[in-house]
Amino acid sequence: AKLRVREALGVLDASGERVTVQGWIRSVRSQKEVLFLHVNDGSSLESLQVVADSSLDSRELGFGSSVEVQGQLVKSQAKKQNVELKAEKIEVIGNCETKVFPIKYKERHPLEFLRQYPHLRCRTNALGSILRVRSEATAAIHSYFKDNGFVHIHTPVITSNDCEGAGELFQVEPSSKIKVPEENFFNVPAFLTVSGQLHLEVMAGAFTQVFTFGPTFRAENSQSRRHLAEFYMVEAEISFLESLQDLMQVMEDLFKAATVMVLSNCSEDVELCHKFVAPGHRDRLEHMLKNNFLIISYTEAVEILNQASQNFTFTPKWGVDLQTEHEKYLVKHCGDIPVFVINYPLALKPFYMRENEDDPQQTVAAVDLLVPGIGELYGGSLREERYHILEQRLARSGLTEAYQWYLDLRRFGSVPHGGFGMGFERYLQCVLGVNNIKDVIPFPRFTHSCVL
Ligand code: 4AD
Ligand code: MG
């Protein structure tokens, strides 16, 4: 039978069954009479040990080559593994030019070095583990939503709305080779989506609880370690929502449930990251998981920051956005427990955020979740469901005409609702302790960089 490496390693009582395994050679060691190979096919961090007679021509059996091995699965004498493959036949499928292969046998390459080779870095343990965790985390998030009665919505990638300044836009136009009868392909300016929120609000008006999880685009001119031009966002929208508290409960639950699932389904891979990429991070993560997330208001946050204003380049001030340095300080101040900052000044936020009625300071029911080492992980809010208030806010922003359809939602069975967006790459950074966002996405896109 043909087995993946993971399946072969999982055979508990190997007793000589004939199997075929395919993969890439991760190590070669030859002794007098035997040759030891380790073969990895990406199904697990661990490789399968292959034992061969040294009479087998070993010249081509080099690090990085792809091979097919036929043989018998037997109990291993070695301590570290349960089974090994006694080779009867090894076929080199594709030889690897080891001398010029940028990934070197037995070396631990820094993530920064590997970033130069987006087409090869997935063959290393570090990227292998990170990307398997990414895959598991995707599944965990989907299963959280499925278990909690959310409908998955494919929101469009191309859209004519900009979600009111959620981010800088990339405009979409056909290539100049295409002859379009009209001047403009869509008749209106079209953009890559910066957020699926408004489409989710439409759907929450029918399915009550919805989510989307897809690529999101922002033309941010930033080389920072937490910004990408293309990233994945997890967004949810919930109807009949009573309070910001209820929304924050879902945000916290999602973070914790997905993380617990990843830790249990992918423990080896997570461990590798914690050990080699971010020593000490496991404890920081456990600390986040076992504590209730904290809640402070924007006004309280500004007060806390003002007490420490000598630490900052930008002086914190009520009515001005929090800077990254402020976010970092707040999380430290909160004992490295994730903290929700709520009730932001109305003037800082888009028209759709719900106005807090009894606040003399004119705030909206907005929420950001700040996490250790990263800063903002989530952004969300209650949405303005009251027709007349929304109408005025739109008019003040000069958007009445463009958002008639959005006002309609408040005319035809409006309900209190709210939602959030979580940056998926920042989530992975937070779980794994990876410092640079470019290392948790297979093919990072950022200013001046769109290779492959
Ligand atoms: O705070 P943001 O802009 O929120 C929204 O777009 C809302 N409309 C979402 C909603 O309520 N449905 O973005 C949400 C999150 C941020 O908190 C951050 O984690 C992530 O998306 N994010 C980025 N991640 C990587 N690179 C970028 N350039 C990002 N911009 C935002
Ligand atoms: Mg935000």
Automatic annotation (TrEMBL):
<comment type="function">
    <text>Mitochondrial aminoacyl-tRNA synthetase that catalyzes the specific attachment of the asparagine amino acid (aa) to the homologous transfer RNA (tRNA), further participating in protein synthesis. The reaction occurs in a two steps: asparagine is first activated by ATP to form Asn-AMP and then transferred to the acceptor end of tRNA(Asn).</text>
</comment>
<dbReference type="GO" id="GO:0005829">
    <property type="term" value="C:cytosol"/>
</dbReference>
<protein>
    <recommendedName>
        <fullName>Asparaginyl-tRNA synthetase</fullName>
        <ecNumber>6.1.1.22</ecNumber>
    </recommendedName>
</protein>
<dbReference type="GO" id="GO:0006421">
    <property type="term" value="P:asparaginyl-tRNA aminoacylation"/>
</dbReference>
<dbReference type="InterPro" id="IPR045864">
    <property type="entry name" value="aa-tRNA-synth_II/BPL/LPL"/>
</dbReference>
<keyword id="KW-0496">Mitochondrion</keyword>
<dbReference type="GO" id="GO:0004816">
    <property type="term" value="F:asparagine-tRNA ligase activity"/>
</dbReference>
<dbReference type="InterPro" id="IPR012340">
    <property type="entry name" value="NA-bd_OB-fold"/>
</dbReference>
<dbReference type="InterPro" id="IPR004522">
    <property type="entry name" value="Asn-tRNA-ligase"/>
</dbReference>
<dbReference type="GO" id="GO:0003676">
    <property type="term" value="F:nucleic acid binding"/>
</dbReference>
<keyword id="KW-0007">Acetylation</keyword>
<dbReference type="GO" id="GO:0005524">
    <property type="term" value="F:ATP binding"/>
</dbReference>
<keyword id="KW-0030">Aminoacyl-tRNA synthetase</keyword>
<dbReference type="Pfam" id="PF00152">
    <property type="entry name" value="tRNA-synt_2"/>
</dbReference>
<dbReference type="InterPro" id="IPR006195">
    <property type="entry name" value="aa-tRNA-synth_II"/>
</dbReference>
<keyword id="KW-0436">Ligase</keyword>
<dbReference type="InterPro" id="IPR004365">
    <property type="entry name" value="NA-bd_OB_tRNA"/>
</dbReference>
<keyword id="KW-0067">ATP-binding</keyword>
<comment type="similarity">
    <text>Belongs to the class-II aminoacyl-tRNA synthetase family.</text>
</comment>
<dbReference type="GO" id="GO:0005759">
    <property type="term" value="C:mitochondrial matrix"/>
</dbReference>
<dbReference type="Pfam" id="PF01336">
    <property type="entry name" value="tRNA_anti-codon"/>
</dbReference>
<dbReference type="InterPro" id="IPR004364">
    <property type="entry name" value="Aa-tRNA-synt_II"/>
</dbReference>
<keyword id="KW-0547">Nucleotide-binding</keyword>
<keyword id="KW-0648">Protein biosynthesis</keyword>
<comment type="subunit">
    <text>Homodimer.</text>
</comment>
<keyword id="KW-0809">Transit peptide</keyword>
<feature type="domain" description="Aminoacyl-transfer RNA synthetases class-II family profile">
    <location>
        <begin position="131"/>
        <end position="442"/>
    </location>
</feature>
<dbReference type="GO" id="GO:0005654">
    <property type="term" value="C:nucleoplasm"/>
</dbReference>
<dbReference type="InterPro" id="IPR002312">
    <property type="entry name" value="Asp/Asn-tRNA-synth_IIb"/>
</dbReference>
